[in-house]
């Protein structure tokens, strides 16, 4: 007879819980199972089986072998109970009853095999080996999932720990662990660094590569290595080592790459050094709210090519302001929602401030990471938050309706409670200003560009719109012109009159080549 | 664009669907000019129906002013019918209500 187990006995043998009410059958099973090296825990009914299961604990058994018809309940009842208690534990049923419904329901509950009595030793062994293997696989999978969850938890904690007084962060992971990561560290007393990475893939490998890059970058940076050299170094590592190793392992060309943005702020010299490889182009928000894309001379992601150009651009940050970095998950979701990425970032920041979750996030297909880094010398009250930042070619007047539709979608997304009148006034004034800039400032020439920006200022609940063209502008007395239009019924030049009535205030710079309109929301 | 002349009241009604903006105004200008250039049939009131418009921009306003001038040349009067509050407001702040009878539905 196989050895009856004491729950305290430590063993590495395979343990099977055998539920059989017929003493003769049980004795036969013992004999067979001993031969094939299974240690049997016997139970004559379902109640005893449950009790033995609880006594030994969920990880003890490698499989269960049960009869269907038992004195107190059925094998199916036991299967249902086990599915809740230990879903990874595989079960084999051994019965005289080959009823189709019973088989169907048992399989639905995850039964591994269904054996008819009397069973041959070989068949029994095959079924139990299969069940044991399935249990082992399920448990391994469960452990891997737990490890992944832990990894994700640590990663999220580390990212959120960069939420400091000067860095406002929105992080919305779609995957348990992945390659989107933001690191923030002091390089020396004068400089600190923000490093944002997005590694291809959404798995522990991506998380590993991301963490490895952050470690290398941090270690080399504090030893005074140039950020360009660090990017070059890691690019060579990815191309010649990591992706080669992937190729040897899988036979396919390795495809791991990193989109990275490094921002090094020097507080003494009041400059920002920026490196962009594969990441969306960041923005700099000046203290007066004007916003520009910076570091547009970007290279491809690290890991794509052996020899890549890595450019560092230096930017003046005197006076403060903000620089924003983000991963392409933000751009992708914004694109699918038909809005500007900065509008989505604004809505995410607002939702975070109100401790709510933005409904659009349920459509996200990639992790979203957005970091707003307040530059030294900035005050919280300074902060304008950009919603739309666009450039239009001078010959794009024919697209004005599409521009208006895009602005409308952004306004409705950013300000769901915006009144119909406010929306109309912002859209009509913006339309007039852009058409005026295209026609007069650019003279409808494709190579001349109109910059359009809409930003929100929380103090005073204000939306400011900038429209800037490269033209010389011209002096314009709005009040005098309005009277002239009335008296002489002139059938042109009503755009500026409209703008001055629609906006709460209008300010012109460079003789009107830059128009700044404020709207109270 | 739809036109209708009521011989009993001598009212010529032109109904525009949608917004009157830079995109639509220049397309509307030639047929409206042609209509207003015809000496007959006679009418004494030109009614512009803009009840479907949610926006009228400066190019649309300029078109309205040029229509008004042609209407006045014929010794007739002009009336605009609108439904949208924002469109009505646009006519008020550009002071077109001083020259044209404005009816808000």
Write the layout of secondary structure elements.
The complex is a heterodimer of chains A (521) and B (105).
Chain A: E1 14-19, H1 23-35, E2 38-43, H2 46-56, E3 63-66, H3 75-85, E4 90-95, H4 100-108, E5 113-116, H5 121-160, E6 167-172, E7 181-188, E8 191-199, H6 204-222, H7 227-250, E9 258-266, E10 271-277, E11 283-285, E12 291-293, E13 312-316, E14 322-326, H8 328-337, H9 341-353, E15 368-374, E16 385-393, H10 400-414, H11 420-441, E17 449-457, E18 462-468, H12 478-488, H13 495-502, E19 505-509, E20 514-520
Parallel strand pairs in A: 1-2, 1-3, 3-4, 4-5
Antiparallel strand pairs in A: 6-15, 7-8, 8-9, 9-10, 10-13, 11-12, 11-14, 14-15, 16-17, 17-18, 18-20, 19-20
Chain B: E1 2-6, E2 11-15, H1 22-37, E3 45-50, H2 58-73, E4 77-82, H3 85-93, E5 101-104
Parallel strand pairs in B: 2-3, 3-4, 4-5
Antiparallel strand pairs in B: 1-2
Task: Describe the fold and architecture.
The complex is a heterodimer of chains A (521) and B (105). In chain A, α8 (328-337) packs across α9 (341-353), α9 (341-353) runs parallel beside α10 (400-414) and α11 (420-441) packs antiparallel against α13. Chain A is α+β, with helices and mostly antiparallel strands and 521 residues long. Chain A has 13 helices and 20 strands. In chain A, the strands form four sheets. Chain A has a five-stranded parallel beta sheet with strand order 2-1-3-4-5, with helices on both faces. Chain A has a five-stranded antiparallel beta sheet with strand order 6-15-14-11-12, sandwiched between helices. Chain A has a five-stranded antiparallel beta sheet with strand order 7-8-9-10-13. With 105 residues, chain B is α/β, with parallel strands linked by helices. Chain B has a single domain (2-104), classed as 2-Layer Sandwich (Transcription Regulator spoIIAA), CATH 3.30.750. Chain B has three helices and five strands. In chain B, α1 (22-37) packs parallel to α2 (58-73). The mean pLDDT of chain B is 93. Chains A and B meet through α11, α12 and α13 of A and α2 and α3 of B.
């Amino acid at each position: 007879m196989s050895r009856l187990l004491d729950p305290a006995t430590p063993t590495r043998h395979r343990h099977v819980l055998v539920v059989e009410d017929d003493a003769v059958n049980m004795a036969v099973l013992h004999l067979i199972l001993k031969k094939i090296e299974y240690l049997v825990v016997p139970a004559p009914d379902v109640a005893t089986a449950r009790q033995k299961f609880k006594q030994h604990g969920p990880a003890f058994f490698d499989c269960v072998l049960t009869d269907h018809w038992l004195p107190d309940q059925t094998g199916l009842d036991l299967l249902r109970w086990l599915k809740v208690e230990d879903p990874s534990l595989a079960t084999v049923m051994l019965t005289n009853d080959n009823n189709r419904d019973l088989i169907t329901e048992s399989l639905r509950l995850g039964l591994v095999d269904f054996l008819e009595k009397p069973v041959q030793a070989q068949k029994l062994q095959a079924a139990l080996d299969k069940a044991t293997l399935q249990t082992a696989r399920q448990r391994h999978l469960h452990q891997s999932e737990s490890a992944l969850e832990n990894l994700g938890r640590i990663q999220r904690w580390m990212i959120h720990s960069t939420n400091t007084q000067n860095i406002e962060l929105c992080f919305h992971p779609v995957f348990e662990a992945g390659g989107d990561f933001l690191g923030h560290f002091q390089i020396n007393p004068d400089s600190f660094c923000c490093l944002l990475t997005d590694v291809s893939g959404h798995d522990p490998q991506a998380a590993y590569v991301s963490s490895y890059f952050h470690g290398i970058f941090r270690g080399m940076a504090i030893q005074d290595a140039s950020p360009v050299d660090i990017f070059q170094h890691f690019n060579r590592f990815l191309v010649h080592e990591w992706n080669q190793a992937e190729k040897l392992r899988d036979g396919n060309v390795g495809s791991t790459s990193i989109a990275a943005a490094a921002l090094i702020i020097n507080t003494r010299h009041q400059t920002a050094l920026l490196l962009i490889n594969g990441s969306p182009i960041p923005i700099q928000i000046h203290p007066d709210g004007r916003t520009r894309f910076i570091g547009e001379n970007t290279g491809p992601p690290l890991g794509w090519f052996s020899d890549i150009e890595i450019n560092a651009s230096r930017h003046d940050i005197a006076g403060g302001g903000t620089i924003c970095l983000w991963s392409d998950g933000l751009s992708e979701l914004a694109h699918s929602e038909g809005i500007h990425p900065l509008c989505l970032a604004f809505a995410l920041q607002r939702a975070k401030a109100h401790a709510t979750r933005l409904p659009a996030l349920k459509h996200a297909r990639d992790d979203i990471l957005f970091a707003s880094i307040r530059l030294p010398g900035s005050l919280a009250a300074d902060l304008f938050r950009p919603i739309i930042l666009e450039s239009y070619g001078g010959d794009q007047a024919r697209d004005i309706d599409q521009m208006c539709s895009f602005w409308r979608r952004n306004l409705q997304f950013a300000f769901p409670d915006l009144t119909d009148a406010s929306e109309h006034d912002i859209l009509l004034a913006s339309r007039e200003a852009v058409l005026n800039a295209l026609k007069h400032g650019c003279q409808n020439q494709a190579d001349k560009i109109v910059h359009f920006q809409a930003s929100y200022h929380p103090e005073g609940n204000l939306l400011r719109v900038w429209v800037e063209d490269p033209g010389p502008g011209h002096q314009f007395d709005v009040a005098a012109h309005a009277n002239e239009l009335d008296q002489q019924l002139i059938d042109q030049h009503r755009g500026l009159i409209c703008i001055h009535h629609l906006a709460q205030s209008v300010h012109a710079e460079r003789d009107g080549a830059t128009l700044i309109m404020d709207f109270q929301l | 664009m739809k036109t209708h002349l009521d011989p009993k009241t001598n009212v010529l009604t032109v109904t525009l669907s949608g917004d009157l903006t830079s995109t639509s105004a220049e397309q509307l200008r030639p047929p409206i000019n042609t209509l207003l250039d015809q000496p007959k049939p006679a009418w004494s009131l030109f009614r512009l129906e803009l009840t479907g418009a949610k926006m009228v921009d400066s190019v649309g306003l300029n078109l309205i002013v040029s229509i008004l001038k042609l209407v006045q040349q014929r010794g007739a009067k002009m009336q605009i019918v609108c439904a949208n509050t924002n469109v009505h407001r646009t006519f008020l702040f550009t002071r077109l209500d001083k020259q044209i009878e404005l009816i808000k539905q």
